[in-house]
Structures are given as structure tokens and as C-alpha cells.
Amino acid sequence: MTATYPIGRLHHVTAIASDPARNVAFYEGLLGLRLIKQTVNYDDPSVHHLYYGDFAGSPGAIMTFFPYAGAKPGRHGVGQAEETAFAVPPGSLGFWRDRLAANGVAFGDEARFGQALLAFKDHDGLRLEIVESPDAAGIEGRAAEGVPAGHAIRGFAGVTLWLKDVAGTASVLTDVLGYEQTAAEGSYTRFVHPGPGLGRVVDLRAAGGFWAGAMGAGVVHHVAFRAASDAAQEESSRALRAKGLGVTPQQDRNYFRSTYFREPGGVLFEVATDDPGFAIDETPEQLGGKLMLPPRYEPHRAEIEASLPKLRGTALAA
Ligand code: ZN
Question: How much distance in Å is there from the Cα of 12 to the middle of ligand 1?
Fold first, then answer.
């Protein structure tokens, strides 16, 4: 066993999207992620909740969406998680440059803290990056249609938050979530979690001159960090309250148990347990194959399925 870290590293990132079929075409079809869970928004079963990840649905590789057909675009700005970065093994950017170009997705070649990356957006304007990360090299990839295993996205590299003032957010990362400040470059400060695996990076961008962001399609709704146990999650709640921050009671999300808080910079953070995971109601091979409903919606399955938009059959360029 490797050393366990009670708290920290990305668990999942959740964003708002518009058309669900285009969302599937982009994240499954283009990026080659596995749709690991189809369910509904537990507060509104007329809307999907789609989870993408690696084969097993591992924490640190889970991108989720609430796709509202016809949703208005959000506004990018401070107080939001703006860039979500996916990790690929070193030597993979050439493949992704060709793949994005072949599919008509505009991108920019950039570098941050010495790592080469491609910056691009999905069809809703969600800001994404593909980063060559040494962390990805030791993790086996899963081939998808048009994406060889060697270049496949392994999971998250990290996220970049745009903030008016970085100090409060920095203190939550270091004092509560187990991160260490490792570098600064221009308006960016990098925080890295010492634990193994993916999703270890949070970059804070001091962007005080920007307007405030607003929720809508193409905007990240919240960023979730891992808790190894209920006790570790509880400890994080105590530490946050000691800083004067409000934290919700634990909520059961079926695949993990969550607490939520608004960090001082305005971004909604979640602390989510690693267990029980996505194989609680489907086998690892079956993950994402059918609509999964919580018990209270099961009696209404037929009408819910009839009212949900279709997920497949939409071309990427539609
Ligand atoms: Zn969440």
C-alpha cells in the first residue's frame, strides 16, 4: 500500500452544458473518455447528470455535466474554476493537436510552469486544456475509437481558478485540503498535492481586473476534492468552520458522500468520499450502459426515460 492521504486532490469537476447529445459526442466521441454513469439531476429528473471518466470511474478522472437542452451560456470571469486540464503522457500533444484540428476544434499551444499544453473549448465554451504530465505516464490508458491507449486522457491534471484575491483560497488549499504552494509565474500561483496519482494541481490566477463570472452553459459549477473517509471529511468541515466558512451537512450522492462550501474566492468546492464509487449499482464492464435512477425515482422510470433527451446519434459538428 502506498501512503494514504486523508484529504485533497481532485475527485471530480462538474459543469453546466447545453445539449446532452453534443456533450456525449464531444467528451466520449472526441476526447475518448468513457461515459461511466448516466443518471438524472437528483433535484430535477427531467435533466441528465452525465459522468465521464477512465474505465473504472476513478476519483481524479471524473468530469460530470448537467446538460440543459437550450441552456443560456454562462459568463466567464472571477470567482470561477475556468480551465479544466486533462493529463496525457509526455509525447502525446502532437496526436491531440491533429485530432482537434481534424474535428474543427480551434486550439492554442501554450505552456505553464514548464508544461506544454493545448488550450481549447468545448461547444458550450467550457475552457479545457490537455497537458503533458509525467503523472499520466505511469497510468495505463484505455483506447477509444480513434484514440490509441498510449495517448489517451488518463484523468485530470488540475484546474485553474480565476480570483479577485488569491489569499483566502490559498489558505483553504494549504490549511484544509493538503496542498503545498510550489511555484509562481506571472499572475499564476501553483499548488500541488503531495499524494500520488492524478488531479494534484490547482493553479490560482489573480484576475482582479476581470468581471465576475455567472453560471450557465460552458461554466464549471463546482470542483470536488477527495476525502479518504468520513472522518477526514468531518475534519475538513471542522477546519473550514474554524476559518469562519459555512459548510453543508454531509449529503448522500449515491456514488460518494459530499459536503459543500463556498471558498473565500467565490468558487463552490465539494469534499467527496472515494467510496463507495461507481460500481455500486453496475459492474465495472457495464458502467454507463443504461440510465441509473435513485430508488425514489425508480417507480417513474418509464416517464423519466420518455422525457429525457436522446444521448447518442448527434454528430460532433452539428
Ligand atoms: Zn459534485
Answer: 6
Say how far residue 67 (Cα) sits from the centre of its chain: 14
- Residue 112 CA to ligand 1 centre (angstroms): 27
> Which has the minimum average pLDDT: 1-10, 116-125, 295-304?
1-10
pLDDT tens, residue by residue, 173-214 = 999 999 999 999 999 999 999 999 999 999 999 998 899 999
Residue 122: which of 221, 263, 224, 25 has the closest Cα?
A: 25
- 102 CA distance to ligand 1 centroid (A)? 32
- Nearest one of 165, 231, 164, 286 to 7, comparing CA atoms: 231
Cα of 203 vs centre of ligand 1, distance in Å, is 19
Q: Which residues contact 179 (CB under 8 A, 6 or more apart)?
A: 8, 173, 191, 192, 193, 202
Q: How far apart are CA 157 and CA 176, in angstroms?
A: 20
Instruction: Compute the distance from residue 286 Cα to the ligand 1 centre, in Å.
Output: 22
Tens digit of pLDDT for each residue in 95-136? 999 999 999 999 999 999 999 999 999 999 999 999 999 999
40 C-alpha vs ligand 1 centroid, how far in Å? 13
Task: Give the distance (Å) from ligand 1 centre to CA of residue 285.
Answer: 23
Q: Does position 156 have pLDDT exceeding 60, yes or no?
A: yes
Q: Is 27 left (phi over 0), alpha (psi -120 to 50) or beta?
A: alpha
Domains of the chain, earliest start first: 7-307 (3.10.180.10)
pTM over 0.70: yes
CA of 244 to the centre of ligand 1 (A): 22
The Å distance, Cα 141 to ligand 1 centre, comes to: 24
